[in-house]
Every structure is written in structure tokens, then in C-alpha cells.
Amino acid sequence: MSDSTPLPEVTAPYGTGAQAAPQRRIRVPHLQAMTDRGEKWAMLTAYDMYAAEIFDEAGIPVLLVGDSAGNNVYGFETTVPVTVDHLVPLVRAVTSAAKHAMVVADLPFGSYQASPQQALATATRFMKEGMAHAVKLEGGRPMVPEVELLVRAGIPVMGHIGFTPQSEHVLGGYKVQARGSGADKLMDDALALEEAGCFAVVIEMVPVPAAKAVADALRIPVIGIGAGPEVDAQVLVWQDMAGLRGGKAPRFVKKYANLRAELAQAAREYADEVRSGAFPAAENSFEE
């Protein structure tokens, strides 16, 4: 899209309640327009209809059905075992429930790296069967042929560079990327993905200066996770954000709730009432 082409405005304060005018589906031009205006925006993962409904109503403009479902839904240690068949039903649930947010589907490990044609076949499944609005893939310059073919086919593509979880065995585990000379590679990958047609790029676990340099250089939105505040948007795994996951959280996570404790307390109270006979009470029962 040329700089002279006007981008559509978001027509209502997104997620501001019943008094707001009806909001259209968020699309690529809306995200670009927000970034062009300097408006930062949030992305969250979602893997089921209830999370999708809640986040959509809260005004989150982009929902990512990530291969992080491996860690947060299926109980895998990494994202590597996740398959297309694991994710397609989750994508369909989220897209069916979210009325306004853009839904982005992750292409899992092994489903796109073999060739651009494999990437197109996988992305087509997510668009047709999962009803996704866009897809995300990991990798920088080597993924340019895949990105170009998907974009040419009319599929919006979000890139992902820096720390790429699908490559954790090569990267030596969860480590900060783009330190020292690695910042040059991060920049090269980002520019290559933008030139190939990506509408946005996620950069994960990189130092703030490297992230800022990429955000300053790219026109498309740069979405950070563990990349500091100097980017255009932020993404978190929702179970991390809401405090559902146990154990130590990554440094870049901020917990906005403690759902793990709330659910545990609710479960204990339910079990106690069942044992005591307090539940079900008359109001929970049917009379003849």
C-alpha cells in the first residue's frame, strides 16, 4: 500500500462498552493506522471460546492462537510437538467467538519450513478450516520465499524473529537473542520480512536498544515480547498475564491477576460444600 493511500480509521473506541458505536472486524489496515498514529496496542494468546470472548469484549485487537498451546493447553515441554491438527480446532473456536479481534494462527514446527508450497498448504488449512484472518511463522530472511508466496495468495503474514521457540534446540534453550553483533542479524531479518510483505513482526527476548532500532527502521508494526517498551505493540501468553500458570514466570511477564489462586479457592469451596451437603441447596434443585 502506497503512502498516499488513506488507511481506514478505527471507527469507534474499541472495547469501550455499550455506548460505543458497533465496531468492525479489526484488519491489517487498522493495525497499520494505529501504528502510524503512534497508538500502542496489545495482543494476547487465546485457545478457547471463553478466553476469546472475554478478550474481544475487553478490546484486545489481535488474538494469537499460538503454538504456545503446546505448553499451555496440551502439557508439552516445548512447542515442537504441536501439529496442525492440534491447532486447527483451537483456531476455529477462537475465530467463532471473537467478533471484532483479528485472529492470527501460528504455523507449527515442521508445517512450513520444507518449501513455500508446504507453507501455502498449511496456511490454507488455517484460513479455510480454522477461519483464521492471518498466520504467523518463525524465521527471518530464510523465510522470505514462504512469506512472498503466502502474501501473493492473499494470506496476511506476521513474522517472528529474535528468540524463536521452535528453534530452541539450535539456540541452546531460552536465551536472550540479538546481543552484540546479533543485533545486525535481527535488523536484517526484520527488513527482509517487511520487504517480503509481512504486515507485522514479533520480536522476542531481545535487548531494548536492538528492539528500538528495529521499530524505528520498520514502517509495519513491531510487536514485542521481552523486547522492552520502545516497540509498537506487546504480546503475552494469557495464562502468564492472568497468573494462571504456576511456577516462576519469565522476566518479561507482568501478572495482572492471580487466577490460579482464585480457581483453587473456588474448587476448595465447592468440594467443601459438597462434603458438607451445603451444595446443592434448594435454589440449585428442581421441585416436582
From TrEMBL:
Keywords per UniProt: Cytoplasm, Magnesium, Metal-binding, Methyltransferase, Pantothenate biosynthesis, Transferase
Record-listed Mg(2+) binding positions: D67, D106, E138
Catalytic residues (UniProt): E204
CDD domains in the cross-refs: KPHMT-like
Reaction catalysis annotation: (6R)-5,10-methylene-5,6,7,8-tetrahydrofolate + 3-methyl-2-oxobutanoate + H2O = 2-dehydropantoate + (6S)-5,6,7,8-tetrahydrofolate
Superkingdom, natural source: Bacteria
InterPro entries tied to this protein: Pantoate_hydroxy_MeTrfase (IPR003700), Pyrv/PenolPyrv_kinase-like_dom (IPR015813), Pyrv_kinase-like_dom_sf (IPR040442)
EC number: 2.1.2.11
Cofactor(s) required, per the database record: Mg(2+)
Gene Ontology BP term (one): methylation
Major site of localization recorded for this protein: cytoplasm
Any single GO CC term annotated in Swiss-Prot or TrEMBL for this entry: cytoplasm
Database matches in Pfam families: Pantoate_transf
Similarity-based family: Belongs to the PanB family.
Subunit (UniProt): Homodecamer; pentamer of dimers.
General function of this protein: Catalyzes the reversible reaction in which hydroxymethyl group from 5,10-methylenetetrahydrofolate is transferred onto alpha-ketoisovalerate to form ketopantoate.
Protein name per the record: 3-methyl-2-oxobutanoate hydroxymethyltransferase
Organism: Nostocoides japonicum T1-X7
